[in-house]
Amino acid sequence: GGGSGDGGSAGSGDPSAVHVISIENTQSHALTCSKARGSAGQHFRVLGGPDALAPPLREALSALHRLEWVGLTDLFEQSLCLLHYQANGTLPKSCDCDSAERIDRARLGAWRETRSEKRDPRLLPAEVLAMIDAQTAVDASLFAAALRLLLGRLRTVEQRTGMRVLACIDWEHLRRTTDYIPGLWKGPEALLADELASQVG
Question: Of 96, 110, 139, 192, whose CB neighbour count within 10 A is largest?
């Protein structure tokens, strides 16, 4: 279902209305829901049963750490490089930031939503942002854990292959697009992007 930040209906036609799909911790729910059978079972909640709208973070993190491969669209190219390494035990030269073949990998693209206009979060009203943050709090923590896991696995791949993968990350863009996640970039357990970038750059 859709909602609107200004009270309008999904079909209001008001171009300033903010329409969103259900965002109640969808990724965390997909990792923890009880329905395992049937078409897209992981995307349906058993309300009044074991599937909470805000799944327990511990269960979502446990499921995340059981996955053999973790990838993020925010680091699409690097995620594919990790998948290739895990599947084949080798890393293509196009994954190496120092390789002339790197340009071919840079042309890869992730799927982009084109049916609606992407909103700049900096332009959304504070109350809309607060509502989104409240509905995605578990997912935000799950994303932070997945990012840390992915970066750690990529560092291991670098150590095993001698190739540089982390240096290709646009750290400034990653930080700018994820700085709303509590504890990711600030605080005692924050990612130290500058330190990481200097070590791999």
Answer: 139
Query: Which string of DSSP letters, residue by residue, matches the chain?
Result: --EETTS--TT---TT--EE---SSHHHHHHH-S--SSTTGGG---TTTT--SS--HHHHHHHHHH-S----GGGHHHHHHHHHHHHHS---GGG-TTSTTHHHHHT-------SSPPPPGGGS-HHHHHHHHHHTHHHHHHHHHHHHHHHHHHHHHHHHH----GGGS-HHHHHHHHTTSTTTSSSTT---HHHHHHHH-
- What is the average per-residue pLDDT within 1-30? 57
Dihedral pair phi/psi, residue 134, rounded to 5°: -65, -35
Specify the residue for token string 């990724």.
27
Phi then psi dihedrals of residue 173, to 5 deg: -65, -45
pLDDT given at position 200 = 45
CA 51 to CA 119: how far, in whole Å? 30
Asked if 61 contacts 142 with a C-beta cutoff of 8 angstroms, the reply is yes
Residue pLDDT, tens place only, 143-192: 999 999 999 999 999 999 999 999 999 999 999 889 889 889 988 888 86
The pTM assigned to this predicted structure is 0.75
